[in-house]
Amino acid sequence: MGDITHRMLTATQYIAPLMANFDPSFSSNSTVRYSDNGNLFVVQWDNVHLKDREADGPFTFQAVLDRNGTIVFNYRDIPIAVESMNSTEHPVKVGLSDAFLARLPSSQPSDENRRTIYEYHRVELNTSTLVSRSSFELTHLQTCLQHKTCDLCLTSNLTTGCGWCNTLQRCSDGIDRHRQEWLDYNCPEEAKGTCEDYNPFLSEGTGTPYNQSSPGPTSSSVTEEHTVTKDIQTTPPDHIGIPENTAIIAGVVAALVLLVVLTLLAVYYINTHPTVAPPFYLMQRRTNNYWPSMKFRNQGCQSSYAEVELGGHEKEGFIEAEQ
């Protein structure tokens, strides 16, 4: 049941109504059939025999996978007790298991693409209750992966330990078969945030949300075995028209240019018309102590020099004072 075929597949990633050392080629009546109607996927083993134990009789059983996640194991003919089957040639398993494959850093160049298998979930059925005309139904637990939005991911009471990765648009606790992708896109750090931290936009014409600052995978050594399951759009859409802040800046610049022009015109007018009222008005205000008064330092009857203090204006010289 894994995305990648490897020698540990039957030990870590399987749905097994009855895994054993069967030999379907022993009898022409032995078949393995399947049916899929879009809602139910059924695999049925008909009249199969154990290798080197053909005299024990044929087994007939099936596995039913429902679209809603329910799994049913049905057993019509189980001629011997499952506990008596030998696991020397092939493991005997009844139940479920899943694992994720992860790339680990290695100091050896030859191990650059080495993968490690981590089995994170297993369900083993009680084989003593597995007899002819029996049936087992397995219903799935609520998991983080079922949540399709950030709000449901972080607030649902049905699941715990969930985090939202905005880059992948995925809810997860980081422990599932997509863990490598979760790590490659720095999702453990993103999952520490809240829904308010994300500001998704819609790409023009597609309606696909994405994060404008979405990082790409942190690992560049992706092997052919690993396939990113979703295309991530990392470039912002083209905006049409002038942004609002650009119009504001243009208005400020225009006002400054107008102010400078008016100032230059005023200076030019004053310099070319020295006898009109405005220049005289300024001269009159200056003589009527409009500007800051001069201060002197008096030292008895001796003459001294004092620096003229004109507030924030430049110092224009010195004046001699006597007292």
End-to-end separation in angstroms reads 109 Å
Number of helices: 6
The share of residues in helices is 10-25%
Following the backbone from N to C, one meets helices and strands in this order, namely HEEEEEEEEEHEEHHEEHHEE
- Give the averaged pLDDT, no decimals: 76
- How much of the polypeptide forms β-strand, as a percent range? 25-35%
Enumerate the spans where pLDDT stays under 50 for 5 or more consecutive residues.
201-214, 218-241, 283-323
**Coarse morphology:** elongated
Classify the secondary structure makeup into a structural class. alpha+beta
Quaternary structure annotation:
single chain
* Rg measurement, Å: 42 Å
Number of strands: 15
Task: Outline the biggest β-sheet.
Answer: 6 strands, antiparallel
How many domains in all?
4
Subcellular location: Membrane
Transmembrane segments: 247-270
Region (Disordered): 206-237
Protein name: Plexin domain-containing protein 1
Description:
- This protein has 323 residues and is α+β, with helices and mostly antiparallel strands.
- The protein has 4 domains: 9-140, no CATH class; 143-239, no CATH class; 241-290; 292-323, no CATH class.
- Helices cover 19% and strands 26% of the residues.
- The chain is built from 6 helices and 15 strands.
- The protein has helices at residues 9-12, 150-155, 179-184, 187-190, 244-272, 277-287, and strands at 14-19, 22-23, 31-36, 40-50, 59-66, 71-77, 93-103, 115-124, 134-138, 163-165, 170-172, 201-202, 209-210, 304-307, 318-321.
- Strands 2, 3, 4, 5, 6 and 9 form a 6-stranded antiparallel β-sheet that branches. Strands 1-7-8 form a 3-stranded antiparallel β-sheet. A two-stranded antiparallel sheet has the order 10-11.
- β10 (163-165) and β11 form a beta hairpin.
- The longest helix has 29 residues, at 244-272.
- The chain is elongated, with a radius of gyration of 42 Å.
- The termini are far apart.
- Mean pLDDT is 76; it is low at 201-214, 218-241 and 283-323.
- Residues 206-217 have a biased composition (Polar residues).
- Keywords: Glycoprotein, Membrane, Signal, Transmembrane, Transmembrane helix.
- InterPro entries: Plexin_repeat, PLXDC, PSI.
- Residues 143-188 form the PSI domain.
- It is a single-pass type I membrane protein.
